[in-house]
Structure to design on (1081 residues):
């Protein structure tokens, strides 16, 4: 079989095992030809191996041909020959062109050196512009040469490949066979390496004649420079299987741009003219950077027009017009009585971004995404909201608030927007969504304290001092006694009352010695302000250990300060949830209104200056609804779920496999509670009866123990109680049911101690719903209990797509749980789960491991996967032949890390000489902005379960799709975005979508499909369980430290810190690990 690739010259590669011709002329230098002849000649004399290739090099300017034989061990030289030949012409002509090019480049460098000795403004404008354009063109030519040197034949532009396919084939008489250059992908859409080493590349493929190396599929572009994997391409034009098609509206707004426009990209460096003070980092706050940029525009509106400039708040400025470069001095003061600060702003041109390249990418002429252009357009579209609204991360919120926004306790629900610009199949799309976050109300500090601190009384301040200091510490306030409203950060409260505070005032002329001045008198003389609440302490807002006292009555909270959700009470949390989850029709209207708002991304006329226009209507897409699977319950009963909600009930039905519960016990922590005490004589019989009805045989509990909720606050008491229960049951208890009067942080310690130290499975429940003993509640409790003990609640009747044949399949889920943003030290917790049965694929084992703070890469993913594969082999007497990995929690910018680090770690860990399972890797993402709204309103306003979108708003060429697998009952349904990065199984769009949707019906805890594929769902639960373990260990360390002496506490604390990063502290008891129990559900 002939393979062809065309550059300037035609390269025809054919098999020739007996060709005796030697190179005479061509694209190789004389030295290269001599080396090639010597090498091949020596091989011919020894006759150890026959030559593998014969390369026919046909020049476009000549009909003569050259034949080069390449030894099998040196077949990598075929690529080198190809790259040499693509330059065109003979070697001497190429050498002459290269010499002239270098000469011109040296002349340009000399000219640029001379230009740099002069200031930009001293040169004529035409000269400066010409030099900039020439430098930019030269950079682009150098980048193109670099890409050409590293590009492999299958990475050539489509036009070149198509042209090559039409070229005439060689008439050599060698028999047709497969040309061997690298590893053979199992599917045209699978990622693969190109490796010159046959052993590391993969197994050898033989077809017809003898083949000395693995086969490379030239039709699949799956390689980057340096043998890096890239995401697979879509194997087809999208799926076709569907019960019905539904038109939906997606919150993607099509972006139009003028392809002949240019965006100027400048690097901006802002530094203080004065050197930083000792001990100071010298870093300028982001708010100050924006003020400096605004001052630069207001001082020089003709050179720096504000309507044509977009600033990202850090190092980049994008402009629709050419800006002067060089150094500029900007002076401003934060307040009228503070000194003037001077900053040096250095602006340098980085690049001229031609929007034609973006147009070429979407038309298929450019093989790579011009990310610099997309970044520039994204910054441009965020410029107007950044000027008019409060910027919090990547979101924007209004300055104003109304009474309906109040959540109580001085907290408001601020309604804002989140936005992003992304390349899609229809072109650049602007995605905008509605967002609600809790903010502190921007009111005077004293008014905030009256709302926030329970029963706060100004006349009895001493009793509230601790609560006030805890509420205000770290908050930003704006002072009211100065006209400019300078901002400060609260460090704490003064130890003295305002009436007793004084300071030493220095004589500005230096004639008199410093004299003592009372703070009350200073404010009267300096600002003509009388302090009313003299009995209150002042706020300490000093920096760098410098004292700066301001009376509370002159301070107002700065707007845009987020309040932690975890600190909100239950009522406020419930109200915030209602605001965050509006019905689909309400969210739809809010999104459309925000797109058209004057303070939104399309307002202010800024995007118009850059030639950008946004379609204000949502994108209409034809979505497909996939048919739900047929389910199996106990007694071989088949369940055809209803298509509207896809729910099923268990009335009169059994679970597939109910684990007999012979040894279990109950600890009633609510026994001494006055209001929420459990009635054991009602709950226990009802629970046993419900389990029996579901096919779970359950005996009476071994014993019923009473306890107090105070045990959760005393870890030694709780530990003793659990040890007593284990001893009483002789370590043979199957599950311990713990009834609690209410939620308590000590729950984390109960789980950690019972699951890692004792090896006992627990099931907690609240006494309130347990006393009601509703059929639905008891059924859910029974399903969790059966899953934890290794039972099977529901299974699929049919095999999963693509896996209908023989061979075991394992599904793996991976996730990382990160600490909160205000926690700078806690480790991140990585979790990996995997199925332990086939074909049911509904029982999972898990492994968790702590790692460095907020590190997303799972550092021990290979070891955890190996452990799970070995566990599978012990349980099933065979290792899985196929593995599907679902990875959660990564952004598009981290795909490369998942592909080229985590995936390779998995392969290195589990693959051996005799065991090489095929792998598919899929990323599941819930943290995105895409929302879907059906055009035809139904009774809940959401898209139906099984809705799939894999056209228009998905990636231009990569293998991704949106799947809404659940029935939305609250707010607007959010689809999950699945992105196939690596595929050795050759999934089609229909197959991978159906497989993912069917798996969502196998979640053990409920009788409906879940919104996220179960491997990822369980990985998230397991990672959260690891977070609970960490919290338990920290709480125990703090408890023991407070009870012990100072010397003992320090040693205990240091040992505990070491244990928190020790994997053994998170490892489950051997009995639970060997049993592969799903105790984390």
């Amino acid at each position: 079989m002939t393979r062809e690739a065309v550059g300037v010259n035609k390269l025809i590669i054919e098999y020739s095992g007996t060709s005796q011709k030697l190179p005479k002329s061509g694209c190789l230098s004389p030295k290269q030809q001599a080396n090639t002849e010597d090498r091949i000649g020596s091989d011919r004399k020894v006759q150890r191996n026959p030559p593998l290739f014969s390369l026919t090099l046909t020049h476009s300017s000549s009909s003569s041909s050259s034949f080069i034989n390449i030894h099998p061990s040196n077949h990598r030289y075929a690529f080198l020959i190809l790259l040499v030949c693509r330059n065109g012409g003979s070697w001497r002509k190429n050498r002459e062109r290269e010499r002239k090019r270098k000469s011109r480049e040296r002349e340009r460098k000399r000219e640029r050196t001379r230009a740099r000795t002069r200031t930009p403004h001293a040169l004529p404008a035409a000269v400066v512009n010409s030099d900039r354009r020439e430098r930019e063109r030269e950079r682009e030519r150098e980048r193109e040469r670099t890409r050409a040197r590293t590009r492999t034949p299958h990475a050539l532009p489509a036009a070149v490949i198509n042209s090559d396919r039409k070229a005439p084939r060689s008439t050599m008489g060698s028999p047709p066979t497969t040309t061997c250059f690298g590893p053979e992908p199992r599917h045209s859409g699978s990622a693969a390496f190109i490796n010159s080493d046959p052993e590391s590349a993969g197994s050898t493929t033989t077809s017809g004649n003898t083949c000395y190396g693995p086969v490379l599929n030239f039709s699949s572009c799956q390689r980057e420079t340096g043998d890096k994997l890239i995401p697979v391409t879509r194997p087809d034009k999208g799926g076709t299987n569907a019960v019905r098609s539904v038109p939906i509206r997606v919150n993607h707004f099509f972006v139009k741009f003028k392809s002949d426009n240019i965006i100027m990209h400048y690097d901006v460096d802002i530094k203080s003219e004065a050197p930083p003070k000792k001990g100071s980092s010298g870093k300028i706050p982001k708010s100050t950077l924006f003020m400096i940029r605004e001052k630069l525009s207001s001082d020089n509106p003709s050179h720096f027009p504000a309507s044509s400039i977009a600033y990202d708040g850090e190092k980049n400025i994008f402009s629709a017009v050419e800006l002067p470069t060089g150094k500029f001095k900007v002076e401003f003061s934060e307040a009228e009585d503070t000194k003037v600060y001077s900053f040096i702003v250095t602006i340098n041109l980085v690049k001229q971004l031609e929007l034609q390249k973006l147009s070429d990418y979407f038309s298929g002429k450019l093989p790579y995404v011009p990310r610099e252009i997309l970044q520039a357009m994204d910054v441009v579209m965020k410029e107007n909201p950044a000027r008019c609204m409060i910027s919090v991360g990547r979101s924007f919120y209004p300055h104003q608030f109304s009474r309906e926004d109040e959540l109580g306790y001085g907290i408001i629900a601020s309604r804002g927007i989140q936005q992003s610009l992304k390349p899609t199949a229809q072109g650049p799309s602007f995605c905008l969504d509605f967002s609600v976050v809790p903010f502190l109300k921007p009111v005077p500090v004293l008014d905030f304290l009256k709302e926030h601190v329970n029963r706060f009384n100004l006349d009895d301040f001493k009793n509230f001092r601790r609560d006030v200091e805890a509420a205000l510490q770290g908050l930003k306030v704006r002072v009211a006694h100065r006209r400019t409203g300078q901002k400060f950060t609260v460090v704490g409260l003064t130890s003295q009352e305002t009436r007793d505070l004084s300071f030493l005032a220095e004589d500005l002329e230096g004639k008199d010695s410093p004299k003592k001045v009372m703070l009350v008198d200073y404010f009267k003389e300096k600002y003509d302000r009388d302090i009313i609440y003299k009995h209150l302490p002042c706020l300490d807002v000093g920096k760098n250990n410098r004292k700066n006292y301001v009376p509370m009555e002159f301070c107002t909270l700065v707007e845009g300060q987020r309040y932690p959700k975890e600190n909100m009470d239950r009522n406020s949390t419930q109200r915030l949830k209602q605001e965050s989850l509006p019905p689909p029709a309400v969210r739809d209207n809010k999104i459309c209104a925000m797109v058209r708002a004057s303070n939104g991304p399309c307002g202010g006329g800024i995007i118009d200056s850059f030639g950008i226009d946004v379609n204000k209507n949502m994108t209409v897409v034809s979505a497909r609804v996939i048919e739900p699977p047929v389910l199996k319950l106990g007694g071989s009963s088949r369940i055809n779920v209803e298509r509207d909600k896809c729910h099923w009930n268990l009335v009169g039905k059994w679970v597939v496999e109910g684990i007999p519960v012979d040894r279990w016990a109950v600890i009633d922590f609510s026994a001494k509670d006055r209001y929420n005490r459990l009635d054991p004589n009602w709950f226990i019989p009802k629970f046993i009866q419900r389990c029996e009805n579901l096919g779970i045989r359950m005996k009476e509990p071994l014993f019923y123990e009473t306890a107090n909720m105070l045990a959760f606050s005393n870890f030694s008491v709780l530990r003793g109680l659990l040890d007593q229960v284990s001893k009483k049951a002789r370590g043979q208890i199957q599950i311990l049911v713990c009834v609690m009067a209410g939620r308590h942080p000590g729950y984390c310690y109960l789980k950690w101690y019972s699951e890692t130290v004792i090896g006992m499975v627990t099931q907690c429940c609240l006494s309130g719903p347990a006393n009601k003993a509703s059929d639905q509640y008891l059924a859910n409790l029974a399903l969790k209990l059966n899953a934890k003990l290794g039972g099977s609640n529901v299974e699929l009747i049919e095999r999963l797509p693509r896996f209908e044949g023989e061979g075991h399949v394992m599904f793996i889920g991976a996730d990382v749980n990160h600490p909160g943003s205000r926690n700078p030290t806690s480790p991140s917790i990585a979790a990996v789960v995997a199925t332990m049965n086939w074909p049911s694929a509904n029982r999972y084992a898990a492994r968790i491991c702590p790692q460095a703070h907020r590190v997303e890469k799972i550092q021990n993913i290979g070891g955890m996967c190996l452990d799970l594969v070995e566990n599978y082999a012990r349980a099933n007497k065979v290792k899985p032949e196929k593995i599907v990995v679902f990875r959660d929690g990564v952004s598009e910018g981290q795909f490369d890390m998942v592909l080229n680090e985590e995936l390779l770690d998995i392969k290195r860990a589990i693959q051996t000489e005799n065991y090489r399972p095929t792998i598919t890797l899929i990323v599941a993402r819930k943290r995105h902005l895409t929302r879907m709204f059906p055009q035809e309103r139904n009774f809940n306003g959401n898209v139906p379960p099984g809705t799939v979108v894999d056209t228009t708003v998905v990636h231009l060429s990569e293998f991704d799709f949106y799947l809404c697998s659940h029935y939305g009952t609250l707010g607007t349904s959010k689809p999950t975005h699945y992105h196939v990065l690596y595929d050795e199984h050759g999934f089609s769009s229909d197959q991978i979508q159906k497989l993912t949707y069917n798996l969502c019906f196998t979640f053990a805890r409920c009788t409906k499909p879940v919104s996220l594929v179960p491997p990822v769902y369980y990985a998230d639960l397991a990672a959260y369980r690891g977070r609970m373990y960490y919290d338990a260990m920290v709480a125990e360390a703090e408890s023991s430290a407070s009870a012990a002496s100072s010397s003992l506490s320090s040693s205990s604390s240091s040992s505990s810190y070491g244990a928190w990063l020790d994997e053994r502290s998170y490892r489950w008891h051997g009995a639970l690990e060997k049993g592969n129990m799903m105790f984390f559900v």
